[in-house]
Amino acid sequence: MTILTPATPTADWLQALHSSNSAWLVTDEQLRVAHVNEGFTRLLGYSLQDMQDAWPLEKLLGQDTELAPHIRDELEQHGAYTGELLLRCKDGSPLWVAATVNTLNRQPFPKVGTTAEVIVLTDIGFTKRFEALQRQMLEDVVMEKPLANLLHDMCGTLEQMIPQVKVCVMDVDASGLLNPLAAPSIAPQVLELMKCVRSGPDRGASASAAYLGHEVMTPDIAEDAHWGAVATLFTSAGLQACWSNPIKNHEGRVVGTLDFYFDTPRSPNELHRQLVLACLHLCAVAMERDASKHRIRQLAYYDTLTRLPNRTMFNECAEQALHAMRGHQGLVFFLDLDRFKLWNDSLGHAAGDALLREIADRLGSCTRPEDVVGRLSSDEFAVLMPHCAPDQMPFLAQRMLDAIAEPFSINGVMTTPNACVGVCTYPEDGTDIETLLRHADQAMYAAKGQGSQRWERYRPEMGKISQERADMERELRTTLAAGGLQLHYQPQICSSGAQRLYGVEALARWQHPEWGWVPPPRFIAVAEDSGLIHTLTSWLIDAACTQLATWRAQGVSMPHVSINLSTNNFHLPDFAMQVQQTLLRHGLNGQDLMLEITESVMLDSSPATLNNLQTLHAMGMRLSMDDFGTGYSSLSYLHRLPISELKLDKSFVQDVTVSSAASALTRSVLNIATSLGMTVVAEGVETQEQADWLARHGCPVLQGYRFAKPMPATDIGPWVQQHAERHAAAPLSHPND
Ligand code: C2E
Ligand code: CA
Ligand code: CA
């Protein structure tokens, strides 16, 4: 039988054959095993005798009966077979091999069993295992297996493949801090040393690799100065050398390191390099995928500005907390900042953002770890405090308000943020978070109604009030769209001489088909809260201008119309231009409108408000300070804006003849206003005594029921006529009626 050349095997040749790591096996023409080399026994555990009972491949393939006939087929047709096979070793363990089978003395039409075969088997267990690892990792990534578990498994598989190495994956965060992500075989005391390590050029292999962005090798930890005092702890745990490779994301940023710790001082070999090269990529994919999952979760559930849970997340956490409370009491707080919009508009959005972050921090400082805090919308926050009794409510709510009201400096401007808080109790006021939040919100709303820096406890009747508000907003929207509001006008009279008509104030009126006349302060407040105030004011200006033009066309002598504006109107950047266009459309000019504003407009330093005020003034429109004396009442503010008229609030006027304080204050207001060149209009003049007192003390203009109630436009013409006739020659201080 000729096996291979040389025909007679030399000693050298036989030695080479036996020392080969591949398994060689030769059969005779009856396919009985004739020779095996030593490599065969080393690889599969079988001796020549073990192989005598069957066709060798059939025996080695074990149960895999379909494959054996297939290989036979190939051999009969082509005389050769190559492929990767999973064989069973003698001890039953599986072994992947690359198999090459060749027939010898092949005839043109060979018959089964008439040719000898040479079978060469090469161990490819390593490659196969690596492919399996790769497949498994990618599968795990797709199946969203937790990152730490996935990397833990990877380390384990690598350690099986290269037993002299302990593998570890470190996480590197954006600030350059390293923490172990997976290190299945590293002793706990060493693992402790690896936590919270800052990346740097001279601190051990992984911290350096993370810092430098390229591989770092410490061939002998014991001898390396950079490892310092910790070196002995590593070496005594059997970690003698470390080879660290940075894991980079697609942007090239280091997000982790893959570290090989060797059990002897040494450097990596070619096999280690190949493994690391492939694993780095897999780690990067897994880590990046995890990071984006985390980011998506952050975006979906956390508020990016304050890092607090958003509404969805708050609800979820709160539901869990309520569930865990199992009948114990708890409190839900709903917090809304006062005048946040004003803040945001006047100091800019960056300042608004800084304030919100600060508020979030302050809320954190007055809550416990088990409390759930969330940001629900722009300036609304919620807190669930489990295991709190209702009697703790006053203390907790006040503490929250106090924390918020600490002075806060931004861009060098010192301000004091304020808020209102509504509180309700679990389980009395609701058993699910949605109901509890709604009730706490209603209580917050009630607190707002009382002013700034207040808190209120939920009461069931609050629900009714908020429902009414919602109904009113809906109805007002429909009414405005249908042009269903009206304007009434109230004359203003000059106190001296013939009681000449000074002007009229336009006042909005709403008659609802079911509710009747709705008090203006109520629907104006709803309009301001809902944003409908812009539509309302546009309508108001247009209606007032239309009416003024009509009166003039009818020959009614009307000096001007006063209209009431809200602070919010001035936040529209093109508000002044809108007013201007309306005037032009009706052939009127700036002097024909008097714009009544409140002190909050004066205090609002937002660029839009200041621009609008300046533009309106430049167009010749006059500004009137309404309700003077009720708000901040600071005369020192008056010079800030080009105010030409002061409206003395009716609360002063009504007391002017009975209270010495009211009369003293009124006198000083009259003095200062006169010296500043402003006209004072006294509001709510109801009696002759009030009118006389005011006229005597030099108040130039009077408005109130004493002269006329607000009336429909059509009544104004006749009223003006009668008034002129009646007072043609009668001074106010000696009225006829
Ligand atoms: P205001 O600007 O201070 O208007 C004067 C209010 O006093 C009016 O109430 C008027 O009817 C009432 N009044 C007039 N004379 C007397 C009097 O002798 N005695 C008493 N007790 N009251 C008198 P009204 O019409 O109910 O309006 C209330 C408030 O609603 C207004 O206060 C104003 O702030 C607001 N408002 C009314 N119309 C509008 C509007 O078109 N736009 C805006 N933004 N606010 C409006
Ligand atoms: Ca007014
Ligand atoms: Ca007023």
Automatic annotation (TrEMBL):
Residues 328-460 form the GGDEF domain. SMART domains: EAL, GAF, GGDEF, PAS. Transmembrane segments: none annotated. It comes from the Bacteria. PANTHER family: BIOFILM ARCHITECTURE MAINTENANCE PROTEIN MBAA, DIGUANYLATE CYCLASE DGCP. GO terms for molecular function: cyclic-guanylate-specific phosphodiesterase activity. SUPFAM superfamilies: EAL domain-like, GAF domain-like, Nucleotide cyclase, PYP-like sensor domain (PAS domain). Residues 15-51 form the PAS domain. Residues 469-724 form the EAL domain. Signal peptide: none annotated. This is Cyclic di-GMP phosphodiesterase Gmr. InterPro entries: Biofilm_reg_signaling, Diguanyl_cyclase/Pdiesterase, EAL_dom, EAL_sf, GAF, GAF-like_dom_sf, GGDEF_dom, Nucleotide_cyclase. Keywords: Hydrolase. NCBIfam families: GGDEF, sensory_box. The keyword Hydrolase applies. Its EC number is 3.1.4.52. The keyword Hydrolase applies.
